Description:
Number of strands: 0
Mean pLDDT: 90
Low-confidence stretches: none
Number of domains: 1
Largest sheet: none
Strand content: under 5%
Structural class: mainly alpha
Order of helices and strands: HHHHHHH
Amino acid sequence: MAQEQDYESEAQARWSDTPAYRQSRDRMSKYSPEDLQAAKNGANVAQALFIEALRMGYPSDSPQTQAAVLAHRLAISNWYYDCSVEMQKNLAQMYLSDDRFTAHYENLQKGLAQYIHDAIMAGK
């Protein structure tokens, strides 16, 4: 719980002046525990699609991998804030530049952080 508060404090300090942050904050303030679980499930589905594509050896620009990219963007857009392709590419950069994100994805599957980054960057 303390770690979540640390992340929220950091996010507020870094992005509170952005429309995406405000939209996410406004949406999340209305969510029930069930809504929060559904949002988490959406992220998990996208992660599972990326993991499957990586395990199958699909290139980052394959239809299967790009389906994961779309699921990732839609999960963010549906639950948090309107996530454009450009915003998603900014997130992809952060997945490699922030060790916490990299570790999260690497704990799920070796090579996943780079794979997600490359897949998102290959998207249009």
